[in-house]
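Researcher: Sequence recovery benchmark, item below. Answer with residues only.
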């Protein structure tokens, strides 16, 4: 097991503490959702990530992600625009 230093915001620390409470059955996902101001579905996803990856899974990566619909290659504009109206 390797140790890693995590930089966490207060919000992420709070979420980790609540995930621990769910794991220890001291709180339900619905109670945690209400407390954190999230939907139950969001808490379910967060808890699944927590179970799979531990506290590190709750840390925001801070890396912007591309949209799936974003163009992968730049499009060159030719300067001419065709109109569909007749």
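Model:
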């Amino acid at each position: 097991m390797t140790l890693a230093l995590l930089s966490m915001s207060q919000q992420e620390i709070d979420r980790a503490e609540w995930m621990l409470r769910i794991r220890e059955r001291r709180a339900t996902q619905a109670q945690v959702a209400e407390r954190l101001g999230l939907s139950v579905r969001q808490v379910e996803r967060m808890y699944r990530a927590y179970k799979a990856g531990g506290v590190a899974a709750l840390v925001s990566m801070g890396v912007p992600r591309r949209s799936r619909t974003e163009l992968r290659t730049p499009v060159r504009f030719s300067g001419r625009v065709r109109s569909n109206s007749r």
